[in-house]
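Subject: Interface between my chains keeps coming out wrong

I've been trying for a while to get a sensible model of this assembly. When I model each chain on its own everything looks fine, but I need the whole thing in one frame so I can look at the contacts. Pasting all components below, labels as-is. Any help appreciated, I'm running out of ideas.
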Amino acid sequence: MALLQIAEPGQATSPHQRLLAVGIDLGTTNSLVATLRSGEAVTLPDRQGRHLLPSVVHYGARGIEVGEAAKQMAVADPLNTIASVKRLLGRGIADIKGLAGRLPYEFDTSQGGMPHILTRQGKVSPVEVSASILKTLAERAEQSLGGELQGVVVTVPAYFDEAQRQATKDAARLAGLRVLRLLNEPTAAAVAYGLDREAEGIQAIYDLGGGTFDISILRLHRGVFEVLATGGDSALGGDDIDRVIAEWMMQQAGIGDDADHRQLRLLLRKACAAKEALSETDQVELDLELEEPPPWRGTVTRAIFNQLVDPIIRRTLIPCRQALRDAGLKPEEIGHVVMVGGSTRIPRVRELVRDFFRSEPLVDIDPDRVVALGAAIQADVLVGNKQGSEMLLLDVIPLSLGIEVMGGLVEKIIPRNTTIPVIRAQEFTTFKDGQTAMAVHVLQGERDLVTDCRSLARFELRAIPPMVAGAARIRVSFAVDADGLLTVGAVEQSTGVKAGVEVKPSYGLTDTEIERLLRDSLLHAGEDMAARRLREQLVEARRVLEALGSALAEDGEVLLATEEWGFIALAQAGLEQAMESGQPESIRRAIEQLEQSCGFYVERRMNANIRRVMQGRKLEELK
Amino acid sequence: MQGIADNYFALFGLPVEYRISRELLGLRYRELQHRLHPDRFAATGDLQRRLAVQQAAYINQAYQVLGDPIARAKYLLELHGADTSAEGEAPKVDNAFLLEQMELRESLGEVRQATDPHWAMARLMERIQADTKDLVRELEQHLDQSAPRDPVPVLVLIDKMQYLDKLRQQAERIEAELDHF
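Reply #2:
Try treating it as a single job with all components included. I did that and got this:
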């Protein structure tokens, strides 16, 4: 647990108690929380024994409700009941234009950037709505496990872009959770299946959820899950199926396009019920009790249903073909196809997927829970409960990252399906004499034109030393971490001057906004912000000191000269002193100071570690 | 990232030559990531995590370069001290090869009009793959463990590979468009 620890396989540092960690599947329609109990991943129910938490938040006159209670309000109070908010996460106003007309909410689009939803309790952002859902699940877990959570793994569709990932992470932060990792949903499912069956070989994960579709192709090899390619459509799912059925019903019942919010909700609910029933039976009777126009009765058969949904299912096969192509594989080279997401319960989906991959899809783990279960397994490993674990997940970036160049074109810097983490650098130069600033526009997508890609951020490089045009060499580096999140750095090469990078997210919240929201929510909960801060910093400080102590005991004598040891000890003492001060800010600074002072030692340990891997290999070869 | 290994080949404990065992490369890659991936440090301090991200990115980069036939050839030439940047004198690809490329491009343009476009595309892809394989074999002969006496023939081969690679990318784009029907 901390600053300097390098886990040796099969060697736990202390016979420590289990750290509480959970996996959360933040879904479009439903969300779940899971943890490991006696080595087995299980989803956690609420007090009424319900595992699925409907991803619905109701902003009522007396407070916020989340889940089933909120869902009940959808028809009666549509404007204040937010469902399927995942579709809005990390999206800009332009993105949701098409969607907004069909969503029964009122948007505030005046602020530019991120759309806010107008509710009885004021404007709320999709990040806040998601945070309420995450918080409800975390509270459920803490009650059920009887302690504070040390970390969570939150799943996201593999096809989520940077902005959508960042928004998810922000939501978790806002909910007061420590995110160990954002995990791609198909990878999570592969973990749940893979560990269960000790499977090896190539797998395709077909994940059709409420609002998103993902396809991932993975290679499993001794606990290593290597994603070869991923693809999908982040706006395609079971909701679309409901809609085509609802539209069919409207047509049959003679309802025009002017149906109001209430009617739309009712129709969508009926459509969804019909869809679910048709997974079991061959036909369903429909009954619409409308005041205006007159009530309507009808029958939808499996044949009609298939006809309606086939175009949607066929749309999912396009990304499947692309992912196979990117992985350099043919459909028959796929060992197993794993089905994930509630929509894969539809027999027609299974049929068409089987025909495409020429292999009977695996459905034995509940497709609604499999993602949360996999996330729980990963959370347990990441929090440090399983130090000898063989499991490792190597994921990829789903969409190419690039920058805007002359003529409104995008130059790709990191192509899609590159394994993360990845760092790539690009050199720029000035085009005017004495130019000291430069604007960079970062985009994500596969198309050539800026207007066809997603704008992630714009930033300015400042404080470039003035030189003649073309003389400055500014190296801009793009680093994507294991969560798929981007950071940008810039250095002028000839002088070594670091240019200031100010990133303005196109659709996200700034750090200050998150800070403010966090403070508001704590005030709301009656918690003292300062006390919470202090507690957090103390926990972090202890974690750092403990790790440093065990690292020094392990190899301090081998790796450090006496005066170096003294230097570290000084910073160590500084932190201990700061802890007594009771000032969260000075503890934070002392931790930073200590980490900086240990930088060279940490690096040495890392290098020693690599040398060990390389040496171990040579010895093995001699055998 | 310095201090890890002299070069990508050394990082994976492989001989410095063009011929490569994909299996061994993959094995060594997973071995290294197992130890050094940032997920191994998820519960640690910022500094160590940042360092782990850099190291894992370096390993990923090395794996990508060695796994890619064109990037691997260029990297090897650079290791041997040759200039592979575009500024050097342009290598001369022979006319026969160029003519062949033009013909291939023409048939790519006609794929959409074929009676069975998918079949036509599959045939074309097979051809591109076979041609690429031939070039890889030639590169293996030129780039063994000793430095090449003359880098020019290698540069010509790399150039040819790039022609084929570009063609393959175009073919894949058209193939993706065919998917929509």
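Reply #3:
Confirming on my end. Residues 95-179 of chain B form a domain with the Monooxygenase fold (CATH 1.20.1280).
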